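Hello K.,

You asked for the raw outputs rather than the summary table, so here they are, unedited. I folded two proteins back to back in the same session to keep the settings identical. This is the first:
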Amino acid sequence: MKKSIFKKWWFWVIIVLIGVGALGGGTSSKNKTNSEKKPETVVNTTQTSTDNATNEETTETKEESKDDAKQEATEEAESDESVPSEYKSALKKAKSYSDLMYMSKAGIYDQLTSEYGEGFTAEAATYAIENLDVDYKENALKKAESYVETMHMSKAGVYDQLISEYGEQFTEEEAQYAVDTLDVDYKIHALEKAKSYQETLSMSHSAIYDQLISEYGEQFTEEEAQYAIDNLD
């Protein structure tokens, strides 16, 4: 009788070869699939937040360094032995005008050179201005606060006084910063101004209202002026 095919040695060799080929093909396909996958993008939010914080700290540090540098420059100018004594005196006087009277750059210069003021030479005054460490926006703000507190002026009135060549001579930018930064209830100041007109000049309500809103008078808004009239005794 013939031997069964399962007892043939070459039959089993074929089976083994077919199995090895199948395994090899499966592995190759799997490796190909894995290699085609794109890497995922990971956003490091912690690093981003850290970078933003670092940038803010760097900006603040630069501003502080800038202010320190200005202060050091002023101190060096005051102690520099090569600088004429008149120049040093002009610088000290300019600093006192800024610290005590919150004057503008132009105002300080005029005061230093005026024959009715300090009488310094133009060269000495220029040296003082160039070496003075001052934030003129803050000076404008402090001057504006004094006008509002003592004279009950309107926002427009304060602005005009700050930039006037016959007033404080601040720049428009410095004056705008001042009036925008002021924390003031102008209705209350309109009322105080109205009371002063009523008590000292015995003016009628109608006349007071006109004076409060006039561009040649107090320059309050109509709303502020009406509030003042409505609350007069």
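The second followed immediately with the same parameters:
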Amino acid sequence: MQITPPFGRLITAMVTPFKKSGEIDWAGIESIANHLVSTGHDGIAVNGTTGEAPTTSDDEKDEIVKVVRKVVGSKIKIIAGAGNNETSHSIEQAQRAAKAGADGLLVVTPYYNKPPQAGIEAHFRAMADATDLPVMIYDIPGRTGVEIESDTIVKLAEHKNIAALKDAKGNPAATSWVIKRSSIPVYSGDDILNLPLLSVGAVGFVSVCGHTVGAELKEMLNAWFSGDSKKALEIHQKLLPVFTGTFRTQGAILTKAALNLMGLPGGFTRLPLVDATDAQIAQLKVDLQAGGVKLK
């Protein structure tokens, strides 16, 4: 039985373009949101890792949701990042995101403090109870220092407001069992594993490379779900240089550089991230062009 995707199939975790001065480029946000809509996205995730959320204030996060909503209207889902390593502040962020107009919440495992599974479960339950919005829990142990174990995911999937899992665990075997046991809608959170995760039952992507190859990712999804696995594999293999090249250093850094190369306002990063070097940009050009991305 095919699992229904609660937020559509193609979502990109959007960058937050900053000016050289460090201020948010609000016109740049509008431009990138328009670009994502034009390349076939069903949803946009804001205020996540790729959006440099640890460096933006709560007020800025609220305004980002509002500005993107103004651009995309009601048809495109907005999923707002609302998780950090402190539960009460995460709850406040969730409630503010709901008030600002988000359609759902992206909640990452609490990071740095390495809570036990009981604490992780309690954190996600508190977040799911904080608003009426559907929650996508986000498992990325390489960043947070601790995984959401399969048993924990299966228990959380029973909560009425926990609607999906963004999977960046890099363990398709574990994900296979989670899908079989819980039927939770899973979104690939690691672009190079997009197709492998579809093959074990994922419903879509929360991509970073959707900034540069969104139309191709949509084509891959359409091919897969129409039964054309050969076409989906062809697209996957074509995009491998983009998947690899975007993450030669931190993903937001090279995504912003890629957008700038495409003539879009990727802008600058905020510390502690730093902008791509000339050598990194030169390699990125090679990677993007090898994957068929047209540059200005």
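The CA atoms of residues 125 and 142 lie 22 Å apart.

Happy to rerun anything if the numbers look odd on your end.

Regards,
P.
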